[in-house]
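User: My collaborator and I are trying to settle a disagreement about how two of our proteins should look. Neither of us wants to argue from intuition anymore, so we agreed to look at predicted structures for both before our next call. Could you fold the first one, then the second, and keep them clearly separated?

Assistant: That sounds like a sensible way to settle it. I'll keep them separate. The first protein:
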Amino acid sequence: MIRHSISVRNLIEFVYSAGDIDNRYTSVLRAKDGIVAHQYVQKGYGAGAKAEVSVSYTDVFDDVELILSGRIDGLFIDTDNKVTIDEIKSTSKDIIELEAPADIHLLQVKFYAFMYAYENSVEQISVMITYINPLDKTTKIFNFTYDIPKLQKEVIDVILLYLDYLRKINFIKQNKDESINNLSFPFTFRKGQRNIVKNVYKTLTENKNLFLHAPTGSGKTLSVLFPSLKYIAGKDVKIFYLSSKGTQKNAAAEAVSILANNGLCVKTVIIDAKEKVCPNDKVSCNPEDCEYARGYYDKIKEIIYKLLQSNDMITREVLAAYAEEHKVCPFELSLDISLFCDIIICDY
């Protein structure tokens, strides 16, 4: 049985994203401004409304147990128990010119509506998509009402598309758990290493935090990575190794390679900053200025499959080679492939 967790947004964007990378419709300030814009809309909801409501949905589809998660921007329940869910989207476009919501935005709120209805036994539900321009705070709202059976069919159809791809990826990774279970520590334990391994594993199983201070050359990386791998066997979780220096990322990659030479079969990606991996002289992520942005989303699924099929350690050099061969952005490729990797080594 495959057990897989993913957010609604990540699932929908992976299945339905198409066309080019184009940052001309976003900005550096968008994330910060988007938060402020969301809060501006939410403050106007009035008494009784709820903001940032978590929802989840778990179901078994043949050999896959899927755990979906998401967060509703706004939830309204009136005196007649009519439920309305709001999804807020910030945009730099002229609000007046918007004639309909983007399909991907509407699908996202449909998922949230179905998940809420499933959890709360609601037979009919209304949704609204609120577009807001963060600069002038102008808004436009689109409203829809759905019967749950019809909504459920649409949601399940999208899920099945994603699961078809997931099964292909999982076939490539089928030896992961067995290789972890059979893995032994590759060296004779140095002084203190065995104690570190035990405490890291204990901390993970108890869902606590561990602060470790040890000198250079004491084997910290392997002592932390080895029990972390033992912990993730049979679980749908990832290991994130965060570093502030490139040399520390190299040390983590070397530790994974040592374990791989001892039988470990996992997928690892090293993520570097966009400015460091961009093949152009100037970072300009749009199809007019960058050939690696053109048609990126039309090509990426097949590239991810091929890359995972041929590589366990996905380094900057591996990403650059695939990016050059297929004319796709190496930075975005590293982010997208991380969804299917077991170890992610990156900056913090």
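The second protein, kept apart from the first:
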Amino acid sequence: MFLKNYWYVAAMPEELGEGLLQRWILDQPVVMYRTGAGAPVAMLDMCPHRSYPLSKGAREGDNLRCNYHGLVFEPGGKCVAIPGQRNIAPRCRATTYPLVEKWRWVWIWMGDPALADESTIPDMHWNDDPEWIPTGGHFHINCHYQLLVDNLMDLSHEAFVHASTIGNLAVAETPCTTESNGTLVRTFRHMRNCPPPPLYVKLRGFAENIDRTQDINFTPPSHIVIKSKSVPHEGNAESPAMVLEYRVLNGITPATERSTHHFWAVPRNFAPDAAITKAFHEGSVRAFTEDISVLEAQQDRVERRPADARWVDINADSGGIAARRVVAKLLEEECGNQRAA
């Protein structure tokens, strides 16, 4: 079960064009494309006539023709043509979803369209700020989305999963603090006088110990912003040449109960040259790929555990547990509102 009356990342802007992009979102098939004017369109990938995938159809101008019986739908979902039939029932419509471009991502609203408010799209402005240099991508991961949320809310695993890139024992050995404010969850860790991990040495040339912070912020239904900053333990921490600061932006979108879309971006505010961007991108892909191996193996074991099995929680789980509680409460409220309606 997923929260529906929220914005989810559906695609990268460059993925949408004249062709038809098919993607599963919240266990629903969705087809997306752009009109000739560049406006993004999203429809349920299911013809209302006999449920054939519209993604197997064809564009006719800005319209979409189903290639089973030839019905044609305009971007707003209205059926405008049925071969051999003049009268078209008003209920012969394709289901459409609000689709908005913001922060260099394409966001979809799968719930009640009347409730879709663009101002509630989570703040990911670093990905579209000229003062920050972005890089990013998209992964499809065979795991439940909350396993990925757990992973990002508890970065102590960096010491063991990412020892060759962004992790070392300082992350696991430094306790985190977690606080909740309404539906927002924040986990913070400050590592003082610790060795720099390998990727940091490569990117910034740290030769001695650093002071490092991880500020992890969860916004429902499943979005996470990680603010990371490292400075030399001794030296002028205010000097831009001495600071390594970046954001890890995570648009986590459930595909099905067993799979997840991970849209990610890692904008930084230092060293704008292309070589550093390439190194940052490659290092990020390597780290996330390490996570994917863990998460897919974890999903396999989760599905095989006994029905009465319960996890053992540790202190480092505080952020993930708090995020799960927020989602559980919001799901209960959303289901209650639907029953009342």
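Some points you might bring to the call about the second protein. The two ends are 19 Å apart (CA to CA). The chain has a mean pLDDT of 95.
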